[in-house]
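Closing statement on the 6-phosphogluconic acid sub-project.
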Amino acid sequence: MTVLVHRTPELLAAATAARLVTALVDAQAAHGTASVVLTGGRTGGAVLEQVRASPARDAVDWSRVDVYWGDERFLPAGDPERNETQARAALLDHVPVDPARVHAMAPSDGEFGDDPDAAAVAYADILGPTPTFDVCLLGVGEEGHTASIFPDSPAVHETERTVVAVRDCPKPPPTRVSLTLPTIRRSAQVWLMTTGAGKAEAVASALGGAGEVELPAAGARGRDRTLWLLDEAAAHLA
Ligand SMILES: O=C(O)[C@H](O)[C@@H](O)[C@H](O)[C@H](O)COP(=O)(O)O
């Protein structure tokens, strides 16, 4: 595990965007394609905005990038609170991705109707039984959640299914679809990105050895590399 601390949230977003462009270019050089798992939240969105603004952006062959989400708010298509909506506005609508390679989690008004369990099963079918990702981007909540995996929740105890429905989330909206920790751990690299003093306790707990049931972000590890990308405020108790 590597911890990188940047002075401000803006520097974190810009530096992580540069890191992501490089990681995608490296993945394409190594095996022809690149796969990235996107996250919701302010930090994740800021990174995508910085990728869009990056002069190096189009070093990536966007037509050979597979885009997934770590979680999604189970809302109607196009809802401004959906992670997909925000990622499209921040980046995906501004680069020539192949629509067939952008794998959004189903909305609540789609083919599976208002059934998050069916949406989760459908996403698991898209991933297949042994998904792998080059880079998995994740945020961290004040109480230590990541994706939509909350402390001591059914999702954090899930070891069989790759994708689950999540209900009664402490962070609104209450219903979501989320990768599970074992699926996140199938990523080559996991990058946990967060800023602000409000996250400092969760960060310190995760880096201090907390277990994943009480602190799900602590269970988000990559096969090859795990990066904690922080600003000084989020890092100040670690
Ligand atoms: O759908 C979501 O809400 C996110 O996936 C969630 O896991 C988020 O990344 C964290 O809550 C951190 O959010 P901030 O970066 O806005 O603090």
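The pocket of 6-phosphogluconic acid is lined by residues 39-44, 71, 73, 83, 139-141, 145-147, 171, 194 (CB under 6 Å). With this model delivered, the sub-project is considered complete and its resources will be redirected to Aim 3.
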